[in-house]
Specification:
Length: 353
């Protein structure tokens, strides 16, 4: 392949990662790909391989098709088919080079720049695997986007998602992702650019200039976000209608609304604000998000008792995810397929017979 660099957008979901990807995708030097975690999913099994059998390639292809059922590739076409020549012969090269080939089978419906020198891979879960991605791709750059924890929590409560709309649950997850990203940033400062969602929507040109300088590409105005891209999103939302997709991608075709930045002040109840500040205060202050609450010692003890069970539940989830990461790859793909089928039954309101 031609020399193409792969860079990453990290940060917890509902922090503007999709918006940023949409804006950057309009730049002629950038190709973006839809949210999909095949790179980290296959990493442990394929990281050291230099020869991939057709069965290996078919596993990745199967995963990509399954992921589209979980979360349709809004604004993109996945063009690879099982009859394609690429899947009929072994691939010789590193896993990173193989990933680049698979990236190229995701075609943006309007803005795909075939010869773009940069691919941007945006996936919130990449935040948890930055060190592994860096081993795979040592020259990678990471754009770390943050958002006020209260706004992020409110957004998750209001969104349609398979995860619970609990303040405690989402506050702990915000902490977990933020901690991972900050640790990585501290160790690799020259390869991480931290930006704020609030600055992206309030001062987009300045924020984008910082990003383009970091990526070492020509400056490009946000106004170049083309209407054709917006139409591609509209068309795909029509074809893949669901409340969750409409919520996630529908906002991209609306003008950026800065009035939503502080909506948490009105839309989070007092007790929800207290919980958010109690859990996220430490990392929030590091990122410049000041707590609104002055919590007394006795109240902190009460909140600790109130939240401890969910902390353990999330810890178990994390251990489960980390264990799954190391399972045999064929087993993982089969397990993922069953997971998709369970979700589809829930969406369709049916039960397994």
């Amino acid at each position: 392949m031609d020399i193409v660099e792969v860079n990453y957008i990290i940060g917890i979901g509902r922090s503007g990662t999709t918006l940023l990807t949409s804006i950057l995708g309009a730049h002629p030097a950038i190709n973006t790909v839809p949210e999909n975690y095949f790179v980290t999913f296959f990493y442990n099994s394929f990281k050291n391989k230099t020869c991939f059998k057709t069965s290996d390639l078919m596993l990745i292809h199967e995963f990509n098709l399954l992921f589209n059922r979980l979360q349709p590739y809004i604004g993109y076409d996945y063009t690879l088919t099982k009859e394609d020549d690429f899947l009929q012969q072994s691939f010789i090269g590193s896993y990173h080079e193989l990933c680049k080939h698979f990236y190229n089978f995701f075609k943006h419906k309007t803005n795909n720049s075939v010869n773009a020198p940069i691919i941007i891979d945006k996936n919130p879960s990449n935040t948890l695997y930055c060190e592994k991605l860096l081993k795979l791709n040592p020259n990678a750059k990471f754009i770390f986007i943050t958002r006020d924890y209260r706004a992020n929590i409110l957004s998750r409560i209001e969104s349609i998602h398979i995860r619970p709309p609990s303040v405690v649950y989402n506050a702990i997850r915000w902490n977990y992702f933020t901690n991972k990203a900050l640790k990585f940033e501290k160790q690799h400062q020259n390869q991480v650019l931290r930006i704020k969602y609030e600055e992206l929507v309030s001062h987009p040109e300045h924020t984008l200039d910082r990003i383009f300088s970091f990526l070492r590409i020509e400056k490009y105005s946000k106004s170049h976000l083309q209407m054709s891209e917006e139409q591609a999103i509209v068309d795909d939302l029509t074809n893949h209608y669901s409340e969750r997709l409409n919520k996630k991608y529908g906002d991209l075709i609306k003008p950026i609304n800065t009035s939503r930045l502080d909506s948490w002040k009105k839309n989070l109840a007092y007790e929800q604000l207290i919980l958010s500040d109690y859990i996220c205060n430490g990392f929030g202050e590091k990122l410049g998000y000041k707590p609104q609450s002055n919590i007394a010692v006795l109240k902190k003890i009460s909140l600790f008792i109130k939240t401890i069970h969910l902390r353990y539940i999330l810890l178990i989830e994390q251990i489960k995810d980390e264990t799954t990461f190391y399972l045999p790859i064929k087993f993982k793909v089969d397990r993922f397929k069953k997971h998709i089928e369970r979700i589809e039954r829930v969406r369709n309101g049916t039960k397994k017979k």
